[in-house]
Write a structure and sequence with these properties.
Two copies of one chain form a homodimer.
Chain A (H helix, E strand, L loop, with lengths): L2 H19 L6 H8 L5 H6 L2 H25 L4 H18 L1 H11 L4 H25 L11 H21 L7 H14 L3
The first copy, chain A, binds a DNA duplex (18 and 18 nucleotides) through helix 2 and helix 3.
DNA sequence: GTCTATACTTGGATAGAC
DNA sequence: GTCTATCCAAGTATAGAC
């Protein structure tokens, strides 16, 4: 297997492991076992387990941001944005990508170094959400009432909590019904 | 020190440790060091580290639920409920109690046994939030549009995410401004 | 670039003295 | 009920062969 292929398979295994058994279960041995490669390779390629996890975060983040920007760019109204958000949620749920991020956030508690890096990689998502919201709120009465920055941060916060809770309670933590309900709220806030 | 005093001090140390260095940092040794007692006592009194953490969750939960019920019982309108929620948030933020819960949820990923127990202890909070919301939404147009169960679960989900993110980003993850903004939304949904 | 082997560290858990 | 001592398992990280 070439160096690049191995790198990619390691990142994949890292995401899968964190997703399934959490940050504290994602040891170099567990990840290597899951991906079918040697444990020592983690240190050769990424220096440390956290290094591997951050590389994975980079990979996922870039791919997802590009993909989701396209989806959201097409949404002009609040209702359309909610529909796009629901599609995004379903994808993230299936892939487990945000569950991965949630676990990294939780695991950062004891590692200031990791925390700093994770935080830096969340920044583009704050901007992304702000942009989407400010466009969609333009035609609603919410525009004058709720600062977009606050709301964007709240949306990301909720999303993080949702993906964390899904691991604990997969049956119940389904946001689909909530998305539908929120779309029912739209008429109430539309600017007449 | 009597048995009961030791028990209480162990629970306190456990909460502080999880809050400060996260679930994966909260080893029996770390907790014992923090509380100034012997590591072996964790196993004598609680059987395991997870046993201690669950006992702490019981203690905190009972105290907080009773206290917060009083606060919320006095709130009759949505605006008053938001004000009460803001007070609760400030207390939890200071005490770190919900940060503790968030860490337990995250740590449960690899421990089905712990997950089950944590989940069971969240149940009263779902009911609590549902009750509060259904009373407060009665006078608003939201009553017909958003199912209370969905909303209550979403509120708890957000709260969990908020307390998780606060550890990572204490400067920014402040919900105070958001609470204020939400109170500005109330007039929009009041039933005319 | 990938493997084996291993030194070192940390944590869970228990036995037995006090 | 609390302590010391200790065993065992698991994880990090590196050296060195291939």
């Amino acid at each position: 297997m070439s160096g690049n292929e191995t790198r990619a398979s390691m990142i994949e295994a890292a995401v899968a492991t964190v997703r399934e058994i959490g940050y504290s279960g994602a040891t170099s041995r567990a990840i290597a076992h899951r991906g079918g490669f040697n444990q020592a390779l983690v240190y050769y390629h990424f220096g440390s387990v956290d290094g591997l996890l951050l590389a994975a975060l980079d990979d996922l983040g870039a791919a997802r941001l590009e993909e989701y920007r396209k989806l959201v760019d097409r949404a002009d109204t609040l209702d359309e944005l909610l529909a796009a958000a629901q599609r995004i949620y379903r994808r993230d749920r299936r892939s487990g990508h945000v569950a991965f991020v949630s676990q990294l956030v939780a695991g950062s508690a004891e590692r200031p170094e990791l925390a700093r890096e994770v935080l830096a990689r969340m920044e583009p998502w704050v901007t992304f959400t702000e942009d989407a919201l400010s466009k969609a709120l333009r035609l609603t009465a919410l525009e004058d009432v709720v600062p977009v920055e606050e709301l964007a941060y709240a949306v990301l916060t909720y999303y993080l909590g949702l993906n964390l809770l899904t691991q604990l309670d997969p049956r119940r933590a389904r946001a689909d019904a909530l998305f539908e309900s929120l779309r029912g709220v739209v008429p109430l806030v539309e600017r007449k």
